[in-house]
């Protein structure tokens, strides 16, 4: 299938699909004319990429973890034990960022509340 069809089947823009290719996440065949030719398995690969992106992984991280991921009853699951440790570290980094943002929000709430008292 060509890039337009993959875009329609996945709901991902052609521009994003080209970016995934640039990052090494997708490897379509190329016809002599230069057209990209995708396989049906690329539909599932794009779905896995999207899930990992929404989980907070960068495309560089996804290149490394994608070979260790499988679809298990429409759920993404790691098959490499060392990957779980890396995912836990990523989750912990996200948790720390959330905590920091919550503290920042609390500080702003305090400042806002103080302004209202001063008025």
From TrEMBL:
Gene Ontology terms for molecular function: DNA binding; DNA-binding transcription factor activity
InterPro entries to which the protein is assigned, alphabetical: DNA-bd_dom_put_sf, MerR-type_HTH_dom, MerR_fam
Domain HTH merR-type intervals: 1-68
Transcription listed as a keyword: yes
Signal peptide (UniProt feature, chain positions): none
Keywords of this entry: DNA-binding, Repressor, Transcription, Transcription regulation
PROSITE patterns named in the record: HTH_MERR_1 (PS00552), HTH_MERR_2 (PS50937)
Protein name as catalogued: MerR family transcriptional regulator
Annotated source species: Actinomadura rudentiformis
Lineage: Bacteria, Bacillati, Actinomycetota, Actinomycetes, Streptosporangiales
């Amino acid at each position: 299938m060509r890039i337009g069809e993959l875009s329609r089947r996945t709901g991902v823009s052609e521009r994003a699909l080209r970016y995934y290719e640039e990052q090494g996440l997708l490897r379509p065949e190329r016809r002599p004319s230069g057209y990209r030719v995708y396989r049906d398995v690329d539909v599932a690969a794009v779905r896995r990429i999207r899930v990992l992106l929404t989980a907070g992984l960068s495309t560089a991280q996804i290149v490394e973890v994608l070979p260790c991921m499988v679809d298990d009853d429409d759920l993404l699951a790691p098959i490499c034990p060392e990957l779980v440790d890396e995912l836990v570290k990523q989750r912990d980094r996200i948790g720390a960022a959330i905590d920091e943002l919550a503290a920042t929000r609390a500080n702003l709430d305090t400042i806002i509340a103080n302004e209202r008292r001063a008025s």
